[in-house]
Specification:
By secondary structure, the chain is of the alpha+beta class. It folds into 3 domains: 94 residues, no CATH class; 160 residues, Reverse transcriptase/Diguanylate cyclase domain (Alpha-Beta Plaits, 2-Layer Sandwich); 110 residues, predicted glycosyltransferase like domains (Thrombin, subunit H), CATH 2.40.10.220. 41% of the residues lie in helices and 25% in strands. The chain is built from 12 helices and 16 strands.
Length: 406
Amino acid sequence: MHLPFRSGREFSVQLKALLQRSATTCTMTAVQWDTLAEEFGPEVYSEALYQLTRLEVQPAEARERLQAIVAHQRQLSKDLNRCVSLITAICDYFTQVDPMVREPVLVEVRLLQQKEEFAVRDELTGLLNRRSFNQEVPREMERFRRFGQCFSLLLLDLDRFKDFNDANGHSAGDQALQDVGRILTETARLYDRVIRYGGEEFAVILPQTNGDEAQAVAERIRLAVARHHVRFAGQDLAPVTVSTGLACYPKDGLDMEGLVHNADKALYEAKALRNTVLRFRDSKRSHPRYLLSDPLPLTLRTEEQDEIRAEACDVSFGGLRCISEAPFQPATPLHVVLTDAARALQLPLRAEVRHLAPDKAGNFQLGLSFHLGVEEQIKLLALLDGRMALASTTLCGIVQPRPADC
């Protein structure tokens, strides 16, 4: 689960303006950059490089490169006996010293921002588009991994929109889509992301929002849309309604595919009722379970028994299934340590055995349950990075039914 880096921090307009102005000056020293980072956090280095080059670099690497660029800028100014701007030094540095940019193009920042805005906006409604959705969801996932801030996702679909188009025409349908987009923008909170997901579907990303809070936002949106009458060609048309599916990260999905799938599943059930909001629910388990493409090593022990080596082959935030060399009877409390030696990561947990079954190889399959706090959830996601795979028909070599939540 490799995510592209974008800062988990929302920078102020003033700071962004300062970063842009620094491009044309030769006054920002390495010490001043470090002072700026002390005030706004190390992400300022990444944000600076992104504003100046559109390269996305992790903070530690961004600081190293920015410090090297400032030193290169100082040397160029000395050699040329004139002030060399930061943007000139960056261009020379990334083409000659550390050639990360092969074919740079000089573009006025205003035109660049216009092109970027057009690329992420839906032409009809002016909302963020699907491309932006595919960028924003990973950013919110990264925010959780860095700061423990959960978020929720709403998927909304206009009810009987084909009937509305057939009765009133496609131009009236476009007006309805524009009206709903405006209502979503006005009803959602300032920091929510409202998106034209495709066709008559919309999405709303709700940062730092749990399921109960997201339900309240979705109900407010539903009521606002239902009360609105579309006006087209001087006539008041029948109101439209929306059905909404809701899923929360990381509770309802450990990756983008799983989260969207489960929000869409809730939306499918809401569409059967129309003009309603439904949260994702799984009658079989509290958390979606994910298979591991690469088994995760762990050790098991009790108060009386030494460590036993095992391998986890599927996992959720509420438990895991592993293959063990020794049996542990159901209801046995265990000390569990999940390990990724290559990345020096460990997660100690207290768990309880729920299921025990022998396999054909002479080992034992154990089903374990546990409860994770936010910090433990973040560590587990780090351990699962690159190992997760959505539903499959096999589990630890044994054929299993496809889980209902995947």
